[in-house]
Specification:
Length: 190
């Protein structure tokens, strides 16, 4: 697959389909994903395109998200929660709109919000890149996560910190928490 050509196509499409802040976030996530991929010995080109497309469905209307989502295999609670429904829909669009067939990329996009048990290193990199990209995320938080990544088992410790923050945020806004998020958090404590 020609990732360079796909990146150009994706950026052009994102400019027309995302608001300015989400575009900046997606560009930052792509750069952060490539940086983290290099740090962990992964394919930086694949990480870049996964980061770039991870939120491609984020600005779709609720109706469009639900229309696409009703035909996808979803976790309990995903269909009702627009904050997380964009992830499986983004994976669907990555495949259908951009021709991405690499299962590692599609899975990383699909699970970048909820996560799942036994995530691969690549999936964890995309998950973390989404949380710490420097264009729209808190830089102090990013620095804290980057410090954790220096330690042995740092990526798992960083994931746990991110999950704690995500769960706190969901609770403070009285939003539902998908069971897979709770299960992953609990499994990370063991």
């Amino acid at each position: 697959m020609n990732y360079t050509e796909n990146n150009k196509q994706a950026i052009s499409w994102l400019k027309g389909n995302l608001d300015e802040e989400r575009l900046m976030h997606s560009l930052g996530c792509a750069q952060e994903a490539a940086f983290l991929a290099e740090k962990f010995g992964l394919d930086t080109r694949k990480a870049y395109i996964a980061g770039l497309l991870h939120d491609c469905a984020k600005c779709l209307s609720k109706e469009n998200l639900k229309e696409i989502g009703k035909n996808l295999q979803l976790e309990d609670g995903e269909y009702e929660n627009m904050k997380v429904l964009h992830a499986p829909v983004s994976a669907y669009l990555a495949k259908e709109e951009f021709g991405i067939e690499d299962e590692e990329i599609l899975s990383a996009i699909r699970w970048h919000t909820l996560g799942k048990k036994d995530m691969t290193l690549f999936e964890k990199v995309i998950f973390l890149a989404d949380k710490i990209e420097p264009n729209t995320r808190d830089l102090d938080y990013r620095d804290r996560i980057m410090m954790l990544l220096q330690d042995d088992n740092g990526i798992n410790r960083a994931m746990l910190v991110c999950y704690k923050e995500t769960i706190k945020s969901l609770l403070s806004r009285n939003l539902k928490i998908c069971m897979s998020t709770v299960e992953l958090y609990n499994s990370m404590l063991s």
